[in-house]
Amino acid sequence: MKKILVLGAGGFIGNHLVARLKNDGHYLIGIDLKTPEFSTSRADQFIQADLRSSHVCDKYITEEIDEVYQLAADMGGAGYLFSGENDFNVMHNSALINLNVSHSAIKAKIKKVFFSSSACIYPQLNQTDPDNPNCKENSAYPADPDSEYGWEKIFSERLYHAASRNYDLNVRIARFHNIYGPRGTWNSGKEKAPAALCRKVAMANQEDTIEIWGDGTQTRSFLYIDDCINGIIALMESDCKEVLNIGSEEMVTINYLAEMISLHANKTISLNHIDGPIGVMGRNSENSLVTKSIGWSPTVSLSAGLLKTYEWIESEVNKLKTSSN
After folding, report:
1. Whether CATH 2.60.120.1200 fits 182-221+250-284+299-319
2. Over the Cα atoms of the chain, what is R_g?
3. Deepest in the core among 17, 224, 270, 314, taking most CB within 10 A?
4. 160 assigned to active site
């Protein structure tokens, strides 16, 4: 049994990760500013604390901890990251967290550290063609991310690599590609496309119209949460020190994503395309390196994952309607 510290344990991925690691028999300590929104944490200890404080990191990242999973970040969907209104906080808060975590982990001689990076680090120029984006791991440089969130993530990747080179910190880094699933935020202003569209469809009547930002031809791939957790654990259990994509190669347009959700809802929904933040025109995980390096690949299809996600969000919408009546 390992003693494991999960940072960002109150978030969507962190909460699922805590549950999985607890099921695997480990002792879990979770830290976050907030508790999980939709379920109780399975952590043996859950500490509400601010990782932007170096004193907090030094207090809890200690020599008795075997592994640290660093998922804490100031982030959200396109409406949060691309509006321009949150750029300073996104960079400042997340950079502070990673500066503190890496420094404390070095001092405590933590045996292994996981850092969650993002597909948002990939250059804009490689993602202008919605049908042929290039998101191979080695395409990250010359760097030109499409958001300040992406710039902070690429800085933090380099920070952890420098800690590895200079102080022998044993680091694993994964670039997540649009993780979705039940128990993720869906109505906070920070939700991503699958949750936002599930909410819009769930709240719509049989033949209503919902709004889509942009013309809907922009492409993305989306990875179901269980596959993400499996990828994290496979990477941590491996000897691979390369940065790896953890995502799906099942790329779809946003229009098609909305149509799939409408089909699961048994509703005939029309799309109204409006101006709004859309990010790059195309993004898709490229999984040849991750499959070769650690033998991981997704197992949950987009349709199957969306069905589970839609059913959960629909139940949340119904609870909201009931409580307001």
Report:
1. no
2. 19
3. 17
4. no
